Amino acid sequence: MTSVKEFRVEREPTATTLGRGAFVFTDDYSVFDWGKMPDEIPDKGASLCSMGAFNFELLADEGVPTHYRGVVSEARSASDGRAVEPRDDPESGEVVPLAEAAEPPTEMAIDLTQVPELPHEGRAYDYEAFHAAAGDNYLVPLEIVFRNSVPVGSSLRSRTDPADHGLDFAEWPEGVVQLEEPIVEFSTKFEESDRYLDREEADRIAGLADIDELEGVAREVNRVVTERAAEADLVHEDGKIECLYVDGEVRVADVVGTFDENRFTFHGQQVSKEFVRQYHKRTQPEWVEAVEAAKAEAKDRDVADWKSLCEEAPEPLADEVVRAARDLYAAGTNAYVGRELFDAPSLEDAVAAVRDL
User: Fold this and answer.
1) HEC letters along 198-254
2) How far is the CA of 293 from the CAs of 33, 48, 191, 299, 310, in angstroms?
3) How many helices (H) and strands (E) does the chain have?
4) Which pairing describes strands 196-197 and 177-188: parallel, antiparallel, or unpaired?
């Protein structure tokens, strides 16, 4: 289980075969690695599921292998009232392409790979043990991050210099830097606090998966999402993917190109989870600062569990913020998929409401 979606396992994976299951998307949200926050955003789960399914189907059209099998739709009836047999065997309906779903789906059917335990002592993680258990069918323990711009406040500015990326600046400019070529980075996936890696360490952590292939897949995903976003008048700023490795092949896993995994803007306004993150920074700075302090203390003490060191907890959002967030997710999804899946205002009106908060 993750903080915002759950697994339903129908067939366990083995060392040589993929399993089958589904993601069950909830209306929970998470910011700053906190996990489940104290409130929910209505229709958020269906928005993420729909947008992710749409992108997986775009990737299939481009020949990019993924673990996606379809969305789980309520079982339909024939014209004479007889029940229609599911074309697959999930527990709660039939597996169909997004266009055939009767309602915005909240379940996505996927192939499952192995995810071994990652042993650790403090902040020292044993990737050799992970790969010994994984064999050649596993979820790559990396997140591959791609950036089309470098905004003010990006961690990239504090970790690297422009010259590290072939940029012709002596130092980072004050404004947003738009990149002609995306920057691709690697970070840890299963560690208690994510950390960025140099290419050599990322290659070691990836195991049998080829680091160049992982980068190439990330660049292709970024291209597909960026082009589709532009058609919806959205700007795709950055995002990430996860991958599985099986039968000598890298396949895209988890969920791709949603408002949680990626950062989009509409006429300069955030249309992504970043809006909620920035709202917390403005309205609950004590909690945000406590989270940062707890992470720093955990690093200094060489312990993995930073959350137990945090002295503050987040407060629920105001009702008007929850409504605005719901409309932003729903309207953004409608615009991105080019279909009125949700009863929602126009994206322009949803963005205006968020801007006024």
Assistant:
1) CHHHHHHHHCCCCHHHHHHHHHHHHHHHHHHHHHCCCEEEEEEEEEEEECCEEEEEC
2) 13, 31, 18, 10, 8
3) 9, 15
4) antiparallel
Rg, Å, the chain Cα set: 21
Instruction: Look up residue 112 and give its two tokens.
Output: 């499952």
Contact assessment for residue 83 and residue 42, using Cβ atoms and an 8 Å cutoff: no
Contact 95, 71 (CB under 8 A): yes
Residue 300 burial by Cβ neighbours in a 10 Å radius (0-12, 13-18, 19+):
exposed
Tens digits of residue pLDDT in 311-345: 999 999 999 999 999 999 999 999 999 999 999 99
Q: Name the nearest CA neighbour of 151 among 182, 175, 181, 185.
A: 175
Both tokens of 3, joined, read: 């903080």
CA distance 351 to 347: 6
Bridge partners (DSSP) of residue 269 are 266
Average pLDDT of every residue of the chain: 91
pLDDT of 310 above 80: yes
How many Å apart are CA 72 and CA 90, to the nearest integer? 8
The answer to whether the CB of 279 falls within 8 A of the CB of 321 is yes
Return the SS3 of 330. helix
Cβ atoms within 10 Å, residue 328:
29
Instruction: Please name which of 256, 147, 141 lies closest in space to residue 209, comparing C-alpha atoms.
Output: 141
Cβ atoms within 10 A of the Cβ of 42, count?
Answer: 15
Which DSSP letter does residue 114 get? B
19-47 average pLDDT score: 94
Q: What percent of the chain has pLDDT over 70?
A: 94
Domains of the chain: 5-355 (3.30.470.20)
